[in-house]
Design goal:
Blueprint lengths: L2 E11 L2 H10 L10 E7 L2 E7 L7 H8 L4 E8 L15 E5 L2 E8 L5 H4 L12 H17 L6 H16 L5 E5 L3 E5 L5 E6 L4 E3 L6 E3 L9 E6 L10 E2 L5 E5 L2 E2 L2
Antiparallel strand pairs: 1-4, 1-12, 2-3, 2-4, 5-6, 6-7, 7-8, 8-14, 9-12, 9-13, 10-11, 14-15
């Protein structure tokens, strides 16, 4: 299956360290060789880099690893194709507009009968994946439920969770969803997270011979949460989400 990576922070922060580990799983230390993508939010805008090539051997991935783009919300995905061919239009993450915001989505898993059960009327998938069709279905349900105005968080997040639970009945549905302000994470079977705050310490990647001392790279006020399919570091304690769990992170803090 694919692997997910996301970050929520209270200050603009780069994801170079975590991404350096994840990209090795894209065809080197892992089998996820069928493309990769990452979206960085900057205010209401976002910039996305995608490549249907394996991330460990992608010049674009090396650019992202070495170029410290700072963001408060990041969504990343490396693909192991199961539905749809390997091509750019099937490469996550996917981004669509809703309520005047860029919503970005990435999915890990496989869904059965998605063409029949996740039908949409106003939104159409550009590619041929179960993942993108599920994204279109979620956005259409949100528009139908709440209309043209974004609801309060108290209404929005439980409703997104209820949609994720419905989709999860079709197979495996690990989800990352963001509008640049929040990171929503739903766990079907594999999702972990860690929040780093003062006092910061060292960390070493599992998939690359790279270590960092976060104390030298941060201030005492920084709060950074990383969500990933599997832990990325050796010497830190990651929290494992249970099947059916969902969390929302805003500015690095777990809201729910």
């Amino acid at each position: 299956m694919c692997e997910l990576l996301a970050m929520s922070a209270n200050v603009p922060t780069d994801i170079c360290f975590s991404f350096a580990g994840l990209m090795q799983r894209g065809g080197n230390t892992g089998p996820h060789k069928d493309g990769w993508g990452v979206t960085f939010y900057e205010g209401k805008g976002c910039r996305t880099f995608k490549d249907p090539q394996p991330s460990y051997d992608s010049e674009i991935a090396r650019l992202v690893t070495n170029y410290p783009i700072k963001s408060e919300a990041v969504v990343c995905h490396i693909r192991q194709a199961n539905a749809g061919p390997v091509c750019l239009e099937n490469t996550h993450p996917f981004t669509r507009e809703l309520w005047g915001r860029n919503f970005t989505y990435a999915h890990n898993g496989q869904l059965a009968n998605f063409k029949e059960l996740l039908t949409t009327e106003s939104l159409s998938a550009i590619g041929s994946t179960d993942s993108e069709q599920a994204f279109c279905w979620i956005l259409e349900k949100l528009r139908l439920e709440f209309g043209n105005e974004r609801p309060s968080n108290d209404l929005l997040f439980p409703f997104i969770a209820s949609l994720a639970e419905q989709i999860n009945k079709l197979g495996v549905f690990n989800l990352i969803l963001s509008d640049g302000d929040f990171i929503f994470a739903y766990c079907s079977n594999n999702l972990h997270w860690i929040t780093r705050r003062a006092p910061f310490g060292p960390a070493k990647l599992i998939d690359a011979d790279v270590a960092i001392d976060f104390k030298k790279e941060t201030t005492d006020k920084d709060i950074v949460t990383v969500i990933a399919t599997q832990p990325l570091t050796l010497n830190e304690k990651w929290q494992k989400m249970q099947a059916g769990d969902w969390h929302v992170f805003i500015h690095g803090e777990k809201l729910i």
